[in-house]
Amino acid sequence: MLKLGPVFRRAYGEYVAARSLRRSSRARPIWGDEWVEDSLGTLWYPCSWRDVSHDELVLLIPTLATPETGQFEKDGPSRYLHRALAAHLRRSVILLSGSRPGRHRAVEEVMDTIVKTGAVTTVDIRECWASGAADIAEFYGDPPALAAYPIDEELERWVFELTVLACLDRVLADSKSPDVAADTRHDCDPFNLPAILLATIYSSFNAAYIYPQLRSLHELFSAGAWLGHLLRGRAALMPEFIADSMIESLRPSKTDDSIWDRCDRLLRTHADMAIGADKLLQIAARVKKQRAPVLVRPARIVEGHLAALNACVKPASENIVRHLRAQLLQN
User: Fold this and answer.
1) Considering its fold, how many domains does the chain have in total?
2) What share of the chain is helix, strand, coil (3-state, %, to 5)?
């Protein structure tokens, strides 16, 4: 019987993942295909949460960000964020329930662990799992494009998945809170700017709708929300305003572990996971040169550098570690 070496096995595994990704991408329309070439003035038409498309929520549309709109549709953002949380919860449970060779955790066991860590408190875990069956197809394709993890990153894997869930859960909770607009503590709160950006990436929802005090950063959130579509295996057009953000954030820079550095590292690492940061920079340069959108197709789905990602969203990830370490040792 032919024995495959580790290099060939890894290459074959990446080929199978890429083939599955391409199948999933074909099932969904290209992001921005119908409207991204229009001017931003055209896109910023008077609209409500009832008639805006999910793809447009990558942008900060002024009429959706006004108090008058929110007054009549307070649950507009929360409805969308609830579906994003349900989709990622289902994805996380699917991945984590088979995380150890020879020891497949039951779905119930994984959900019990998530409950005990307090990562998700805004929704009922089991109801969210059930509703996520339809939501995961919308966010990740059908069949869903799911990433593969290195076997030797068990704890980091759990920490990252639960940190993403905790960030999505917090943004969902804040979308329902009337006091968020007056909150200016995000630089010192455990739920800081990198954590908000992480939630934006995995929901493809511009967080500036939820946090008025952060609306000056709406372009950063647009870049993260756009990258989230690519990360989940969906082809996307790169407009010029996204190219500007990618060029600014993806270029290698001196690491100083500031809030801004951690946000840039989050974008760079997720770009590497979806297509490669260097390749995305090349495409962004083409967009600027041509002054026209360029189609970007995700090349692979690779979960790498989990420890680095977790470090970017400290102290939010540290809160998960404190609750999770004892749970994993018991199982």
Assistant:
1) 1
2) 65, 5, 35
Q: What is the DSSP string of 131-170?
A: HHHHHHHHHHTTTT---B--TT-HHHHHHHHHHHHHHHHH
The token duo for 70 is 């929110």
| Percentage of residues of the chain with pLDDT beyond 90 | 34
In a domain, 102, yes or no: yes
Q: Does a structural domain hold residue 1?
A: no
pLDDT tens by residue, 254-311: 667 788 888 998 999 899 888 989 999 999 999 999 999 999 998 865 555 677 777 7
Residue in 194, 84, 147 with CA at minimum distance from that of residue 304: 147
Structural domain of 10: 6-330
Q: What is the dihedral of CA 232, 236, 240, 242, to 10 degrees?
A: -10
Rounded Cα gap, residues 195 and 284, in angstroms: 25
DSSP-derived letter for residue 189 is: S
Give the Cα-Cα-Cα angle 236, 140, 174 (nearest 5 degrees).
95
pTM for this prediction = 0.83
b/e sequence 184-217, b meaning 16+ C-beta within 10 Å: eebeeeebbbbbbbbbbbbbbbbbbbbbeebeeb
Give which of 242, 263, 279 is closest to 31, Cα–Cα.
Answer: 242
CB 58 within 8 A of CB 237: no
Q: Comparing C-alpha atoms, which of 239, 206, 201 is closest to residue 32?
A: 239
Q: Which helix (H) or strand (E) holds 238?
A: strand 236-238
Residue-wise pLDDT tens digits, 56-76: 899 998 888 776 544 445 678
